[in-house]
Amino acid sequence: MKIRVDRDACIGAGQCALVAGSIFDQDDDGLVVLLTDTPSDEFIAVARKAATLCPAKAIALEE
Amino acid sequence: MISVEDPGLVIVGASLAGLTCAQSLRAEGYTKKITLIGAERHLPYNRPPLSKQVLAGKWQAAQTNIDSAEKFAELGLDFFFDEDAQELNIASKEVRTSKRTLAFEDLIIATGASVRRLPGTESMSRVHVLRTIDDALGLREALVGIKCAVVVGAGVLGSEVISALSEYGIHATVIDRMARPQLPLTGGHFASRVNDLFIEHGVVAKYGVEINSVTEQETGITFDLSDGSKVSGEIAVVAIGCIPNVGFLANSGLDISNGVLCDSNGLAAPHIYAAGDVASWHNSITGKSLRLENQTSAIEQGLAVGKFIATGESSPTTHPFFWSEIFGNKILMLGNLEADIPLTIVHGSPSDNRFVAATISNGVTTGIVGWNMPREFRQSRAMMEA
Ligand SMILES: Cc1cc2nc3c(=O)[nH]c(=O)nc-3n(C[C@H](O)[C@H](O)[C@H](O)COP(=O)(O)OP(=O)(O)OC[C@H]3O[C@@H](n4cnc5c(N)ncnc54)[C@H](O)[C@@H]3O)c2cc1C
Ligand code: SF4
């Protein structure tokens, strides 16, 4: 699975980093930073959770 | 034995809350039929960018889609668009739409809200509202080449529209019956900050006035105000709030006095649920029923309803969250700032235009705002869990 983030859409809510801190971080402007774009299997569920919870819908998962 | 096809589940309203319900049901293992009915002609899309990236001309319409068409198809829904529910019969477990009658085992109401219009202006072509993608594209087109506009409503949407106008170099006059600008959940603490931004950007504000009449001329629109003054613009944008879409529930027997009244699982009656802007959920943190109009509530309620129907498990109550961007300032808000408690500055400083502030009542943090400080805002969220 591959993760894509749209930094143009991101509003820095930080939901992603809260639920999946091993995959997402925020830069100084609060915008999402991907720590990895291909998470290992054990992190796929939290990545999916982050994508659903992102209020700006800035995270897409490609299976 | 006669087998009758299981009617499965019907979701009315194909936007953020309805789609999230469907995603959650599937993710939680719900395998029965799901029928999704939506009044709009589009795949589910995000509304927040309409007043931001789309109005500013930075995004095309397709960029607002929540899921790609392929992702959407993977959910395995029976999707009917451009079709609206017209009547709910709870006793016979049927919903009548503009095109058919559907039986259901469970029903989710996710019909959101519609814009409140200014009476008398409904058919005026120079008066715009902003709720749908079509509204946003129409308004964007109307901004081309104009020099002045009137915005009715100094709430969060009105403020975002004024920021967009200012980026286009369009002079704005704002009218509001309240005495100052309002941001949701902030207890009035940010009214003067927002007003200062208006002044700094040359916005003329008329607060505490009623609109006596509106007249449309060939080249513009004029508002007669209760203080005797007149305000004109080439177009007007009305942003005076929303009304929950409960018309089709009028004879259903549900309590629809402020949206659909639900318990803390989103249950309005046996087998009938509601989520998103249309729903007023019981909030176990505040002990009150609360109808919220924001993305995060629509998502969290959609997730919770899907999980509850699929597994019978409840989800924890969360704090309301919203964001906005006004004149380039990124505002994040969690919980509810209390009007009568002074702000405590947690990070940064208001004079630097970067800070995190909270209201703390008897040691309990009731709300946090991040103003141009998203990272510190996220770190401060822990205060609300304490
Ligand atoms: C311009 C704008 C900017 C916003 N900005 C922000 C922001 O920055 N942050 C934030 O948190 N929130 C923001 N919001 C609010 C956010 O968009 C809403 O909270 C969210 O869309 C709610 O989703 P929903 O699915 O509950 O309702 P809606 O998005 O209103 O969707 C309801 C759907 O149901 C359909 N429907 C209605 N009646 C029927 C019927 N009888 N039969 C079938 N279908 C029906 C409607 O056509 C609509 O498609 C903004 C909203 C707007 C309009
Ligand atoms: S949750 Fe979404 S909006 Fe928030 S920081 Fe992550 S990607 Fe950005």
TrEMBL record, chain A:
Keyword set, alphabetical order: Electron transport, Iron, Iron-sulfur, Metal-binding, Transport
Pfam families named in the record: Fer4_15
Organism whose genome encodes this protein: freshwater metagenome
One term of GO molecular function: iron ion binding
Entries under PANTHER family matching the protein: FERREDOXIN (PTHR36923:SF3)
Record protein name field: Unannotated protein
Keyword Cell wall biogenesis/degradation part of the UniProt annotation: no
